[in-house]
């Protein structure tokens, strides 16, 4: 598993981080009075991190980071679903919900309101081994963030009526998860592989345990596990470490421990029962099959974990990895394939998962089991091993591009990873993961006697007589087991036979002439650069019967040049921890790349070669068609994916805005290489903007830009769309649990005078403290997700209200939306609502532009559409000046129920 999966797992070893607090520690003494100076021990680590332990054991870590005017705060608690007893399964997750329902000093909704009106972001997350409360704030408001985190963790109000309401929300969330193939598959895997451990239970719990929660049970859970000695407060950003420590001491120093900390026992993979492979098959309504081959893995602090990270990367970490290349590229048996090594505090889980057409299950399994038998001892070339190590460590470094990402990485290594030296130790272990270390780690985990196979697949028609000697069209459990053991037998003792935002100098715009614009945004904070070449065109160059062709051309464009085929290209990029990809939009076509700065010459040469000599290979066209068709089918298996594929054709018909960017399966299947070549010939002639953000040699970039092909055509003209006369669209998706309701209002297009106001109104409506959330979820408990979002283009826009709810509550939800709109029409919003929305817009603006790739893409997209580079900032500045009365006028102008389009996805 790579560092990305470490952050997903979020597990940690308490005894390594807090060696002074062992199982022998007695219940902590009463904390000193507040007016007594609080002694503490503190140190500044070589990396500049201030790490302090208060007398009650709570760790306070602070890292000053002045790249952005932001502060990211995290309060980690050693309490998650793995600490629950079966009768209260899911209570950690329920508590995470309840802290947003009010505290002793803040009424319901006030927590999110206080943060969002200061321009911050607030959330909480529950995993198996931890709960984390987090907020990302403008740096001048970090004290507010700290106060809110303490309030959430230690002073939730936990009102019985609110608990009953929120239990319904969590039950709806659970039902929604059952509609997701990946969620359902993971639940099956954990129940099978991790049986007998606390990790066999889903974090969200079960319907019967959720319904049985009481306020008394929740308070007992908090009293037992929410101990200061089991917590860490982390602050990263543009802050004064001394001031943060002083405030943390005042805020948390008087908290007392009320229970001892007993480190849980680790369970090695060798300790799990070795009773032979387990196979579970479930018939589902989805069009695709979803399969997972899983084994008990290693715990987080196990010495084998880094080697398994590298092993996972070698197998399926990128497009040149062994399993991806074999089953996706060469044999074309799967749509997706992935390998993950999840490390938890007490154990782990190693999985190989794939999505594929159900009629390929038999052939795939016959081939995969042969690979499984030899996989642990497979010989990987040194180049591939070096590439995998680079990718794993590169993931860690790139995580730190944002303030929040830096906080997540630092939090993991300080709290979950075992202490101040954990990051360097991890990197050293990755570097030392040679062929022998990987083989030893892999062979200890990949054992047929502990294998668990979970298959979710639709019912298949009977197999015809001509295929009787082929793998069965619909394999059963006996066939899966027999095929596995024939290729990968176990020895008599049960062991397998094989095992015996703006930074740096100001940007620069250089007009190169002939429809070419170069935008330079220096940022030397990281040794990377992001590049976006955006051309006018995309879907706007297509006829209605060509929908999906631009997306197909984008997929094929980077799959071969005159000097490298697709495999060589992937190896070339992966050897440099770099990326080069293409994509299409309604009015644009882009080619993006990012790279460590030391590989800049190589990547600029590759960009030039792609533009001048892309070969568009026939076999890559066919592979990309398969991928695109599979993506369409998978998207239409998901309620929201299906809805968004249908909404725009419903609204705009054959107009460009009604196009389905991926096309439909029949149209895509009919495309030929000649279609792709003809499109690219026309697209390559269009005017372009080249945007570069990061660390770069200015003169070298200008020289490289001038060498790129000059445009020979004009940007296509786009006529205004005609809106549909029909107002209602009902989409049926059988055998699902939830219904999904959209109210779609025509809104203010990009660049219009009303754009700032509509953006502000959307921010006021959305969010955890937004009007829709507070009314339809907090007050009425109608659904887990309630929000508002916009789609905007130069000639049209929409503001959509959305809720996922139970089928019999759709009408009530629609009435709820109508009541919110009526209130907006009747009364001007309170000033505090506007303040919250305005600050949220400002906070979102800074957070969204931390990554170099985001700033590069934004500049290129704005310029190619003829908009000023500060257009988004100008919208926010204009929104800051708006009054409640002006927003009321906009609500009356645009939010008219009689003009709304109603789109529902129902499970009938």
From TrEMBL:
Ranges in coiled-coil conformation: none
Ranges of residues in domain Peptidase M16 N-terminal: 60-205
Keyword set, alphabetical order: Signal
Domain of life of the native organism: Bacteria
GO MF entries: metal ion binding
SUPFAM superfamilies linked: LuxS/MPP-like metallohydrolase (SSF63411)
Record-linked InterPro entries: Metalloenz_LuxS/M16, MPP/UQCRC_Complex, Pept_M16_N, Peptidase_M16_C
Residue ranges occupied by any Peptidase M16 C-terminal domain in the UniProt entry: 214-390, 689-841
Pfam families (UniProt xref): Peptidase_M16, Peptidase_M16_C
UniProt signal peptide: 1-25
Family: Belongs to the peptidase M16 family.
UniProt name for this protein: Peptidase, M16 family
Phylogenetic classification of the source organism: Bacteria, Deltaproteobacteria, environmental samples
């Amino acid at each position: 598993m790579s560092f990305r999966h470490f952050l997903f797992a979020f597990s940690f070893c308490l005894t390594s981080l807090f060696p002074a607090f062992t199982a022998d520690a007695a219940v902590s003494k009463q904390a000193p009075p507040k007016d007594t100076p609080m002694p503490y021990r503190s140190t500044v680590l070589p990396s500049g991190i201030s790490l302090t332990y208060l007398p009650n054991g709570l760790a306070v870590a602070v890292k000053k980071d002045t790249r952005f005017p932001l502060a990211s705060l995290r309060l980690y608690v050693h309490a998650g679903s793995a600490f629950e007893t079966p009768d209260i399964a899911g209570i950690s997750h329920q508590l995470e919900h309840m802290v947003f329902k009010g505290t002793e000093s803040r009424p319901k909704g006030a927590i999110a309101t206080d943060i969002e009106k200061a321009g911050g972001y607030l959330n909480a997350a529950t995993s198996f081994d931890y709960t984390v409360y987090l907020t990302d704030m403008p740096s001048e408001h970090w004290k507010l963030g700290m106060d809110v985190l303490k309030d959430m963790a230690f002073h939730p109000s936990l009102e019985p009526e609110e608990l009953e309401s929120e239990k319904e929300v969590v039950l709806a969330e659970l039902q929604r998860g059952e509609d997701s193939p990946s969620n359902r598959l993971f639940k099956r895997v954990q129940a099978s592989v991790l049986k007998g451990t606390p990790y066999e239970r889903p974090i969200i719990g079960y319907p019967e345990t959720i319904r049985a929660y009481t306020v008394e049970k929740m308070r007992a859970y908090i009293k037992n596990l929410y101990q200061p000695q089991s917590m860490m407060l982390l602050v990263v950003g543009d802050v004064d470490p001394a001031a943060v420590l002083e405030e943390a001491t005042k805020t948390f120093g008087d908290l007392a421990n009320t229970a001892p900390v007993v480190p849980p026992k680790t369970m090695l993979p060798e300790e799990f029962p070795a009773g032979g492979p387990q196979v579970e098959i479930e018939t589902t309504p989805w069009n695709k099959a979803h399969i997972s081959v899983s084994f008990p893995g290693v715990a987080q602090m196990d010495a084998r974990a880094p080697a398994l990270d590298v092993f996972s990367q070698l197998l399926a970490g990128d497009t040149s990895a062994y399993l991806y290349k074999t089953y996706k590229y060469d044999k074309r048996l799967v749509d997706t394939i992935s390998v993950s090594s999840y490390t938890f505090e007490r154990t782990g889980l190693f999985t190989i998962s794939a999505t594929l057409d159900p009629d390929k299950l038999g052939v795939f399994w016959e081939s995969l089991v042969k690979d499984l038998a030899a996989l642990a001892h497979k010989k990987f070339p040194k180049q591939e091993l070096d590439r995998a190590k680079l990718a794993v460590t590169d993931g860690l470094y790139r995580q730190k591009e944002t303030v929040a990402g830096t906080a997540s990485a630092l939090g993991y290594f300080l709290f979950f990873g075992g202490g101040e030296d954990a990051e360097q130790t991890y990197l050293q272990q990755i570097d030392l993961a040679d062929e022998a270390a990987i083989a030893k780690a892999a062979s200890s985990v990949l054992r047929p006697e502990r294998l668990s196979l979970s298959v979710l697949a639709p019912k298949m028609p009977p197999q015809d007589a001509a295929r009787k000697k082929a793998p069965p069209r619909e394999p059963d459990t006996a066939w899966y087991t027999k095929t596995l053991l024939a290729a990968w037998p176990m020895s008599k003792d049960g062991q397998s036979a094989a095992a015996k935002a703006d930074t740096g100098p100001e940007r620069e715009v250089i007009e190169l002439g002939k429809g070419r614009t170069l935008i330079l945004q220096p940022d030397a904070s990281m040794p990377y650069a992001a590049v976006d070449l955006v051309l006018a065109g995309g879907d706007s160059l297509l006829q209605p019967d060509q929908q999906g062709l631009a997306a197909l051309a984008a997929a094929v464009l980077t799959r071969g040049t005159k000097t490298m085929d697709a495999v060589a290209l992937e190896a070339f990029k992966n050897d440099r921890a770099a990326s080069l990809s293409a994509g299409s939009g309604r009015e644009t076509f882009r080619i993006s790349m990012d790279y460590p700065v030391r590989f800049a010459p190589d990547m600029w040469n590759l960009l030039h070669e792609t533009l001048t000599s892309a070969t568009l290979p026939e076999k890559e066209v066919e592979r990309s068609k398969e991928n695109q068709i599979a993506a369409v089918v998978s998207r239409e298996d998901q309620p929201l994916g299906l809805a968004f594929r249908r909404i725009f054709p419903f609204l705009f018909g054959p107009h460009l805005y009604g196009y389905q960017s991926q096309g439909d399966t029949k149209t895509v299947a009919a495309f030929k290489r000649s279609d792709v070549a003809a499109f690219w010939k026309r697209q390559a002639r269009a005017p372009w903007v080249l945007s570069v953000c990061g660390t770069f040699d200015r003169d070298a970039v200008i020289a490289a830009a001038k060498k790129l092909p000059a445009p020979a055509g004009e940007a296509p003209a786009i006529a205004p769309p005609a809106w549909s006369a029909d107002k209602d669209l009902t989409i049926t998706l059988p055998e699902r649990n939830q219904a999904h309701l959209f109210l779609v209002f025509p809104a203010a297009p990009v660049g219009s005078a009303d754009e700032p106001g509509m953006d502000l109104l959307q921010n006021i409506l959305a969010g955890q403290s937004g009007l829709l959330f507070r009314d339809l979820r907090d007050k009425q408990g109608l659904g887990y997700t309630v929000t508002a979002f916009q789609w905007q283009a130069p000639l049209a826009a929409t503001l959509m209200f959305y809720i996922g709810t139970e089928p019999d509550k759709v009408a009530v939800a629609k009435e709820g939306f109508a009541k919110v709109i009526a209130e907006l029409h009747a009364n001007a919003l309170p000033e505090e609502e506007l303040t919250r929305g305005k600050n949220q817009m400002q906070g979102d603006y800074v957070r969204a532009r931390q990554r170099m790739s985001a700033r590069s893409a934004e500049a290129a997209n704005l310029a190619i559409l003829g908009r000023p580079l500060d257009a988004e900032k100008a919208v926010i500045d204009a929104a800051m000046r708006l009054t409640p009365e002006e927003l009321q006028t906009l609500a009356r102008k645009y939010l008219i129920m009689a003009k709304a389009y109603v789109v529902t996805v129902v499970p009938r």
